[in-house]
Write a structure and sequence with these properties.
- By secondary structure, this protein is of the alpha/beta class.
- The chain folds into two domains: 199 residues, P-loop containing nucleotide triphosphate hydrolases (Rossmann fold), CATH 3.40.50.300; 163 residues, Rossmann fold (3-Layer(aba) Sandwich), CATH 3.40.50.
- The chain is 36% helix and 17% strand.
- It contains 14 helices and 16 strands.
- The strands form three sheets. Strands 3-4-2-5-6-1-7 form a seven-stranded parallel sheet, with helices on both faces. It has a seven-stranded parallel sheet with strand order 10-11-9-12-13-8-14, sandwiched between helices.
- The radius of gyration is 23 Å and the shape is globular.
Length: 399
Amino acid sequence: MLFKELSIDPKIIRDLDRNNITILTPVQEETIPFVLIGKDVLVQSETGSGKTLAFAVPTIEKSLPAGRVQVLVLAPTRELAKQISEEYVKFSRTKGLKIATVYGGVSINDQIQRVGVADIVVGTPGRILDLLKRRALKLDNVSYFVLDEADRMLDMGFIDDIRLIIKNLPDNRQNLMFSATINSKISRLMEDFMFKPQKIMLANKINKCILEQYYFDIEDKRKISLLVHLLKTMNIDLVLIFCNMKRTTEFVARALKSNGINAAAVSSDLSQAQRESTVAAFSKGEVKVLVATDVAARGLHVENISHVFNFDLPDNDETYTHRIGRTARQGKCGKAMILLSEKDFDKMRKIKQSYPSIEKVETPDFDRAVIPSREEQRPNFRGRHFFHRDGNRNQGRRY
């Protein structure tokens, strides 16, 4: 279906055409008509499916340049909030709507000024609450309330913030909720604030030719060598590697760099500025391989990721779904690979219940890679012994 076939403002069509967007993705084709007729919608759809336009296009269509907030969009992270806002700006330019993006970690004063004249506000729950408490944000005229990546927001503990924000919204509004997974928490939240929502379930409908999933049966101590071999022999664009612990991300990134692979790690140890700089370098292709924990990867939306590796398996299939959703976006092909060692066998059995198509592939022959000592990751490590900050050798056990 083409966007020009929808009953929407020609100005929006022109902005879409200007960005070479003419054909609706499945989630857009399923969702937009229901939003246009005023229905609440609950949409289960993978990251990268085009869901942002599924709510942005109809809410832009329904909004007018009035200098009062008509659309409120909540996102779990500042990165996602910024990306959603960029989409709103691109596709509402001709219509003349004003978009405000609000999130923590930066001065609130500029944000106070922007929300005072905004037609559409996109923000994180914490900063939205801050603005409400300061009476700087008025939600009396909100007609459309959007929760994006709702499952992630609940995982991050935002449920109380979300409920407080909802209390400040008018009753006669339309609610749109998007989530990669639907669980009991999402269902309860839906029952609490949505009115007879149209349920659109598109997640886990994986086209094998778009997303291919494999696993290698490999000893834990040989994972690095196999990973180096695969990265050097496969045709890759950008690669995202998930580890469960931040010290593992640092070790893996260091090991890859020791073997001549352009890699970087992001973890909670980095400052926000360092993290944004690293992610920007990855997005531009200046860094080809990014190693991250699930926490550090929240809000990471980078196009052209050709491969996702699970160095460790997550504890549940919901997290696995979020991981593999970073590739095969917007109809592009992608590969999700698991380096499966014995410690993750139980996790794999659970994940295969949701993803039975994951195929085992034969582990290729490979050379032993250069593997740095894990101890060298620790602060104040010099040679074979651990030193105190005063420079004296630790007389206890060796590390």
